[in-house]
Amino acid sequence: MKINEAAAEFLACRRIAVTGVSRTPGSHGANVVYDRLLERGFEAIAINPNADEIAGRPAYPDLRSVPDGVEAVVIGTAPQRALDTMREAVELGIGRVWMHRSIDGGSVDDEAVAYGREHGVVVIDGGCPLMFGPAADGAHKAMCAVLKLMGRAPRTVS
């Protein structure tokens, strides 16, 4: 399916976990995604094994600790941690995972992508949910075009 369709289906989920949200955000990509999803009315849930709270909101050490679960996950951690998150998502029956990647290396891990897809997860392997639909802004839309040209954002999702 085309990336726009996969992004629309992902963003139709309202309860989205974001891994890698930091207590000291700076310009950390996971924090930017988490904050924007909250601003746009999503029920964003911070995943950080070293924090019980981030910016006054609860944080959880892993996906299985989130009360009532989530519909989708944005992986915003180092790629070496993506496979563990993907395995946990599969175990919990979470069917949509977005591996964040901007101009840097991001969170994409080929083994995690393959594992998720082998287990029926719709995996968006690159780009950022803030480049699409109700979460987007002008800067992220422009970034989307650039990242597609650079091969850092997928044009299709299988």
Q: What report would you give on this structure?
A:
- The protein contains 5 helices and 7 strands, in the order H-E-H-E-E-E-E-H-E-H-E-H.
- With 158 residues, the chain is an alpha/beta fold.
- It has a single domain, classed as NAD(P)-binding Rossmann-like Domain (Rossmann fold).
- The chain has a 7-stranded mixed beta sheet with strand order 3-4-2-1-5-6-7, sandwiched between helices.
- Strand 6, helix 4 and strand 7 form a beta-alpha-beta unit.
- Helix 3 packs parallel to helix 4.
- The mean pLDDT is 91.
Please tag this protein with its features.
single chain; 158 residues; alpha/beta; Rossmann fold; seven-stranded mixed β-sheet; 7 strands; 34% helix; globular; CoA-bd; CoA-binding protein; NAD(P)-bd_dom_sf
| CATH superfamily annotation | NAD(P)-binding Rossmann-like Domain
Helix content class? 25-40%
Could you state the oligomeric state of the chains shown?
Answer: single chain
Largest pleated sheet? 7 strands, mixed
**What is the CATH first-level class name?**
Alpha Beta
Structural class: alpha/beta
Topology, number of strands: 7
Rg computed from alpha carbons, rounded to a whole number of angstroms: 14 Å
The number of helical segments is 5
Q: What strand line-up does the widest sheet have?
A: 3-4-2-1-5-6-7
Q: What are the secondary-structure elements, in order, as H or E?
A: HEHEEEEHEHEH
Overall average residue pLDDT: 91
* CATH T-level topology: Rossmann fold
- Beta-strand percent range: 15-25%
CATH architecture: 3-Layer(aba) Sandwich
Unreliable runs, pLDDT <50, ≥5 residues? none
Please state the overall shape, judged from the principal axes of the Cα atoms.
globular
Can you tell me the number of structural domains? 1
Through-space gap between termini: 6 Å
